[in-house]
Amino acid sequence: MGNRDNFGKCRSCGQQVIWIKTVAGKNMPCNPQLVTYRQGNGKEKIVTPNGEVLSGELVGAGTQDATGVGYISHFATCPNAASHRKK
Ligand SMILES: [Zn+2]
Questions:
Q1: CA 41 to centroid of ligand 1, rounded, Å
Q2: Which domain of life is it from (predicted)?
C-alpha cells in the first residue's frame, strides 16, 4: 500500500530520508519534508508522492498556482553528496 513507512537513513550523512519508488522503478532517497512546487522550467527536481520526477521551482505553501506537493531528492541537499561532487 503506497509509500508508507519507507523511511531510512542516508548512508553518507545519517539524515533521515524517505524512499520513493519512481515510475521508472528506481528507489530514490528524498528529504522527508514535503515541499510545495510549481511545475515548469525551474531548476529543482521534484519527486511526487506517486513517483513522478518533475522539474519545477519551489514556492511557498498556499501559493495559488502551485502544482502540488512533493519531495526533493536527498542528493540535492546531502552535505556529503556535495563534497563528493566537488572533485
Ligand atoms: Zn545524505
A1: 26
A2: Bacteria
